[in-house]
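Structure ticket #2291
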Amino acid sequence: MIAGSAVSWHNTWPRYDGLLWGLCGSGSWALLCVAVTFAGTRLGWWHAHVPSRRRPRLALLSVSVVAAAAVWLLCERLGAPASLLGLGSTAPWLAALLLACTWVSNVSLHTSAATASVTLHALELGPAWTLLYPLAGAVGWSRLHLRAHTPRQVLAGAVLGTVCVALISSSR
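Resolution: structure written out below.
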């Protein structure tokens, strides 16, 4: 949410509407995903807020793809600037890629999101933001330390997040 807001504001500066588009767009998607996660846990559909089993994980990622696409379409209909819509398409694409990869392996969503966020900042706000990559590395390490993922799954998440953002950013 912070990454989307910062980059949106930067891309529409000196106007402030980019900040609002970023907060509303990425914030809506994040809130929808959190609501579904907590509802699923409360209803007993899965046993943890970060399900590790394939079926609940696929369900959660499917909802994330639909939510990201719906928020993107709503922003488009409400007149979001084209430059922000291009960047905003990262969310549904990355969620869809992660969904597809989950059929094969338990790719680290946390690492993917962390590297995607740092890559977005670095590409849109300047190379100084690459100094945040150690934080993304710490996220990956935490997933290994918690034994939630294997090194291959963490690496796959990092590559997916970075490549997805780089491709979308370069195609604008």
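Closing remark: The mean pLDDT is 88.
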